[in-house]
Amino acid sequence: MSSQAWINLAYLVAAMLFIVAFKLLSSPRTAVRGNYLGAAGMALAILAACFEPRLQEALAVRGIWPLVMLFLAGGLGAAIGATMALRYPMTGMPQMVALLNGFGGAASAFVAAAEIWSAQDPVAWSQFAIATAATGLIGAVTFWGSLVAFGKLEELPQFKKAWTDPNRHWINLGLALAAVLLFAGVCARPESVFLYVLLVLVGSLLGVTLTLPIGGADMPVVICLLNSYSGLAAAAAGFVIDNSVLVIAGSLVGASGLILTAIMCQAMNRSLVGVLFGGLGTTAVVSGDDVYAGKIKSASSEEIAMVLEGADRVVIVPGYGLAVAQAQHAVRELADALEKRGTTVEYAIHPVAGRMPGHMNVLLAEADIAYDKLREMDDINPTFPETDVAIVIGANDVVNPAARTDPKSPIAGMPILDVDKARTVVVVKRSLSPGFAGIPNPLFAADNTLMYFADGKKAILDLTAALGKS
Amino acid sequence: MITPLSLVPLFAEAASTEDPAARFIRLLTVFLLAMWVGFEVITKVPQRLHTPLTSGSNAISGITAVGALVSAGAVAAGFGFGNLLGLVAVVFAMVNVAGGFVVTHRMLQMFHPSKKTK
């Protein structure tokens, strides 16, 4: 058996390990093992790559130092990555994932750059030429898009406001056209490194201008999409260097990102095009005053504690506001206090609550809340009529009954958590300001709703204290 | 003679004699089948694991490290700018790989079921 056959066999095993890893990631009990298997597959693929003929040729001519150089570069990267991953606070996971994702996209673009630089007489419109152009473009969009996403999630001041210049569609259209032309240019003249560099530059600009206008609540979609892109870039790089393990792993990631994107869009009842180019409009909206006038009941922590005391079943509905207020530990304490009194406490998680897919699950897990108490929307919605108290913390649009009742509402048809069907609803909120959709929420004015106006964390601590006193 | 390895051609890396179009179709086959497997496997992941799934798949997209190693290390004809680009790719890809797996691990460590005894 030739050495190439052994290498290919190792790649095949690595690819299988990746598939099994994805499979095991579908249950909390096996997920840790899945992650180990993924890492093992990666280690195997990297080890096998060291025996690739092109590398062995270099080693035969130059001695050991190319390998030393690679080892140093790889070690440096791994050390940076691992340090970042260990140091970054758990609550910053969305931006951390975005940043790491960007590095993957950039790496693919650099692989294509290295290949086109070293290529001798590449053939126009060959697999090599087309794949190189695709890798450069997707990789650049991924890297810069991820950096902007990181900036937005980290809430850097430069990214506080979404870019809403009305000309942005024309700018994007122009850049997209330029990208198409340059793509064709690289395919037609793959010997020109200059065209490749131009293509990467335009791709970089596109990554920025496409991500800048996207608002905070749409970030889960963007994260999924960028994740998918980094996989597709790796797959395209596989076509550049004729390597099946890159193609397999890349397309697995590409598929995973696309599915999550679709799930997120569905959960917001919006099309992907709408998320990427629309932005929930500034279309004139019903003023909150008409909906809220005279109907808002504000309660004190003592009053709410009294309601909670009589409750057998409490459902907590977390939203992004909970992450901002860092109130997850306070929520755990409140839940512990309630459970000590014999109350059942569960959590209702909307699929797009937070800034990345599954954000709330990670956030509450960080506060040591068991995952089997976190229930998905379809699972918990039928139980709201038997719920004594629903506590909404930092969520707004995802509990807006207008999505169900008002066909003219901008969020009409969006799947929501039916908290309004609970006997009593407690809404913890700083003010009556609208959520991302910019519309008033009739839930706040409902007869069975008590508003508690305060910062999320302080509010929950106060409630726990009031509960302890009575 | 038919050996198990004669089944490997689907995954065989560029034999220099291979017709370019045939090679492209071979990789395209791999690409589409892997996409299909991806769709099938990922659809079953529950919402509560979406974040670890995103970061875990993110780590796997660092597979481009394999390409980076080959691009950076091929210096038989002398170290050129192409190798430097490859080295940058190695660093970036390894940041992605190591960071991705470590973050996923940290996240999964936090997930635990209710303790039976109260």
**What fraction of the residues of chain B are assigned to beta strands by DSSP?**
under 5%
Secondary structural class of chain A: alpha/beta
Based on Cα principal axes, name the global outline of chain A: elongated
Largest sheet of chain B: none
Q: Report the total helices of chain B.
A: 4
Helix content, binned percent of chain B = 55-70%
Task: Report how far apart the termini of chain A are.
Answer: 78 Å
Helical segment tally of chain A? 19
Q: What integer is the average pLDDT of chain A?
A: 91
Measured by residues with Cβ under 8 Å of the partner chain's Cβ, the largest interface is:
A-B, 129 and 91 residues
Judging from the principal axes of the Cα atoms, what is the shape of chain B?
Answer: flat
Low-confidence stretches of chain A: 280-284
| Strand residue percentage of chain A | 5-15%
Q: What is the total number of structural domains of chain A?
A: 2
| Residue share in helix of chain A | 55-70%
Number of domains of chain B: 2
> What number is the mean pLDDT of chain B?
84
Main pleated sheet of chain A: 6 strands, parallel
Uncertain segments of chain B are 1-15
What does this entry look like structurally?
- The complex is a heterodimer of chains A (470) and B (118).
- Chain A is α/β, with parallel strands linked by helices and 470 residues long.
- Chain A folds into two domains: 3-278, no CATH class; 288-469, Rossmann fold, CATH 3.40.50.1220.
- Chain A has helices spanning 3-24, 31-49, 53-62, 65-87, 93-118, 127-153, 168-188, 193-211, 219-241, 244-268, 272-278, 288-292, 301-309, 320-325, 328-340, 359-366, 377-380, 402-405, 456-469, and strands at residues 313-318, 344-349, 374-376, 389-393, 424-429, 449-453.
- A six-stranded parallel β-sheet of chain A has the order 3-2-1-4-5-6.
- The longest helix of chain A has 27 residues, at 127-153.
- With 118 residues, chain B is mainly alpha-helical.
- Chain B has two domains: 1-44; 47-118.
- Chain B has helices at residues 20-42, 50-60, 64-73, 81-110.
- In chain B, helix 2 runs antiparallel to helix 4 (81-110) and helix 3 (64-73) runs antiparallel to helix 4 (81-110).
- The chains are: A alpha/beta (470), B mainly alpha (118).
